[in-house]
Amino acid sequence: MTYVVTDNCIMCKYTDCVEVCPVDCFYEGENTLVIHPDECIDCGVCEPECPADAIRPDTEPDMEQWVEFNRKYSELWPVITRKKEPMPGYEEMDGQSGKLAKYFSEAPGEGD
């Protein structure tokens, strides 16, 4: 099992999760985070830290696409280990549906 970030993170990008990760397996894109599924040790400490409920175990239904999404971008984006402010406007974006198609950016974030 591994944990993955889903589209609930897009345009919110809370980073509470990265501070509690014991193996630094989070990677930062311009407007979202991902978890490298091969680096995640399945400890689960990140899941309850996410205010947007964007972190899910891969054992839930229909998570295969998110495992591959997280794998792809974790190999392209820089690692992030420190908490940062969420994105501007995150309050309005939190909980919106369809954010992957509407807002996702492939551009990398700043990382640490």
Can you tell me about this structure?
There is one protein chain. The protein has 112 residues and is α+β, with helices and mostly antiparallel strands. It has four helices and four strands. It has helices at 16-20, 64-74, 90-93, 99-103; strands at residues 3-5, 26-28, 33-35, 55-57. The strands form two sheets. Strands 1-4 form a two-stranded antiparallel ribbon. The longest helix is centred in the middle third of the chain and has 11 residues, at 64-74. The termini are far apart.
Task: Produce the secondary structure layout.
Elements: E1 3-5, H1 16-20, E2 26-28, E3 33-35, E4 55-57, H2 64-74, H3 90-93, H4 99-103
Antiparallel strand pairs: 1-4, 2-3
Domain 4Fe-4S ferredoxin-type: 1-30, 31-60
InterPro entries: 4Fe4S_Fe-S-bd, 4Fe4S_Fe_S_CS, 7Fe_ferredoxin, Fd_C, FdxA, RnfB_subfamily
Protein name: Ferredoxin
Descriptive tags:
single chain; alpha+beta; 112 residues; 3Fe-4S; globular
Give a summary of the structure in a few sentences.
The protein is α+β, with helices and mostly antiparallel strands and 112 residues long.
